[in-house]
Amino acid sequence: MSNRRTICLFIVLLALVALPGLTMAQEDTTIDPTTPMTEVEPNNGLDTAQIIWTDGVTGKLAKASDVDYFYLITSGWDAMDLTVTVTRPAGSPLQAVVTLYDEAGSELAEAVCGSVEPCVRARVPSGANAMYIRLDDSRNKGGAKYTYTLTPTFADPYEPNDTPAEAKPYEVGRQIAGLIAPEDVDYFSFQAQAGEEFHVTSSYTTVTILDANGNELHVLPAFNDTLFSLEETGSYFMKVTTDYGAQPYWLQMLRVNRPLLLSFTTAGTLGGVAFEPGDLLLYSTLDGTWEMYFDASDMGLQGNLVAADGYFEILLSFDKPQTLPDLGAIKPQDVLSFYANMTGEETEGWLSWYIDGSDVGLTQASEAIDALGRGVNYRPTISTKGKLAVPGASRQLSAQGNDIVLFFETATGADTQGYWQLDFNGGPLVGQKANLVALQPDWGLSMQELGYFLVFDRPVSINGVVYDVNDIIRCRLSSEGDVCASTKLMWDGAFVGNYVIDALAAPPVELR
User: Fold this and answer.
1) 219 - beta bridge partners?
2) Region 6-155: CATH code
């Protein structure tokens, strides 16, 4: 398409309720964007301006000195050229004057509409959320015949971009708006580092990620919630198409930050942050930074933190039996809950019982917990140091140290009640010798992405790929749910050198 094409800008109606200082003149806020609206009085000032779409509005200056004001929501993302046309039916004596204002009410342009169209044009600055349009008669006249149709249009700022050679540079994180049609293709280029993960959201379009040679890597449907990663550093393309018909669209690509909470078997220092074996450090996979998140000594806890889950409420399991005020004796088969008032170098909050292991069959040394998370319906999942035999729904359940079992609780706390069920069978994945030492359910951003993050106590080979100690392996669950349909390296354990990961938790994924 030529770069003269215009964009009937996409408007998100839900945003209207958040616009300050705006009185909606019409009672019915359900607007059909495919046909011009009908002007509704009163709309004689900025404070009563009628909201319109870019398909325009049909109105009338009903009496002398009548003035009509309209409020047009713009993209808020890109600088665009706005033009306004006014058409009059045969016999209309209207000599229209159109004035454009920015969202603060400052005048941008004014013109008397004659036979040459468009009537008036103005540049909408980047970041502007709205424009006001005023229409009156140059002689201050009005009446039944003073009818008109006013139509605002925007020029697509990215055309021409119909081929990879014409691709417009895209800055990751920016929201942009354009116009698309089934016969059109829009290309944008962007840069990525090896291993970076992204999320693309778009309206009414399919976004295809291509490498520098035009090879298809990922296909992302409209309104998708799919995460994808790029394996090599370099230049890439977004190819934008649609099957929905000619219409405006918006598009945004965000980088994915997967924060990690990690505990290690020994004391040390990472990124300038000193830690003990009972602490949890917060690591940003996007920024590569470390910070203290949970200081165990502030809460009077001793020993090595061997299992953790959560972010706001943290579940904890320690390898050292100990006695805590108000809680009593804590064993390696137990799970504590920590609610934080403050995290970081000065950790504050309160501890309580979450699972008393002895109440639900965890009594042997081999049944000491060494990995935990929250699975289906937020229920706790654990793995143990070795074999376990615990009550199931109808009979005794047996599992190995590389399996994950799910706890169906009927009561948590000091008097724990419930039963166990096998949730993940690790034997077929890595063999019986490897022990699972850290796990975290991976909720992804959609049901198709459910799985686990796994860490083993020794190198393991999965489908011909060798993962080392400390490597965090992403397992996408099969449709049956108890085995991995696919695995890949989520995080390279070599980043922590000789320190050994002993507990893993994953705070919510951040998009930025």
Assistant:
1) 208
2) 2.60.120.380
Q: Element (H or E) spanning 430, and its range? A: helix 427-430
CA distances from 216 to 253, 257, 486, 497 (A): 17, 24, 21, 36
Contact (Cβ atoms closer than 8 angstroms) between residue 199 and residue 180: no
pLDDT for residue 444: 55
What was the pLDDT predicted at 425? 85
CB burial of 432-456 (b: ≥16 within 10 Å; e: otherwise) equals eebbbbbbbbbebeeeeebbbbbbb
Buried b (16+ CB within 10 A) or exposed e, 270-291: beebebbbbbbbbbbbeeeebe
Burial call 2-20: b when 16+ CB within 10 Å, e when fewer = eeebbbbbbbeeeeeeeee
Q: Is 283 left (phi over 0), alpha (psi -120 to 50) or beta?
A: beta
Cα–Cα dist 57/26, whole Å: 13
**Could you tell me the residue ranges of all domains in the chain?**
6-155, 164-256, 260-511
Would the CATH topology of 6-155 be identical to that of 164-256? yes
The answer to whether the CB of 206 falls within 8 A of the CB of 184 is no
pLDDT in tens, 40-82: 999 999 999 999 977 789 999 999 999 999 999 876 666 778 8
User: What is the spatial distance between Cα 30 and Cα 299, in angstroms, rounded to a whole number?
Assistant: 55
Q: Specify the residue for token string 């220092």.
A: 269
At residue 117, the pLDDT reads 67
Token pair of 214 as six digits? 């035009």
Taken in order 465, 470, 474, 480, the sign of the CA dihedral is positive
Q: Which pLDDT score, from 0 to 100, does residue 439 have? A: 87
Residue 395 phi, psi dihedral angles, 5° rounding: -155, 175
Omega prior to 169 cis, within 30 of 0: no
Choose the CATH number for 260-511 among 2.110.10, 3.40.50, 2.60.40, 3.90.920: 2.110.10
Angle at CA of residue 128, ends 123 and 134, nearest 5°:
65
**Beta-sheet pairing, 57-60 with 37-38:** parallel
Strands 417-424 and 436-442: unpaired
Domain 164-256 sits in CATH at 2.60.120.380
Closest CA to 86 of 131, 117, 107: 117
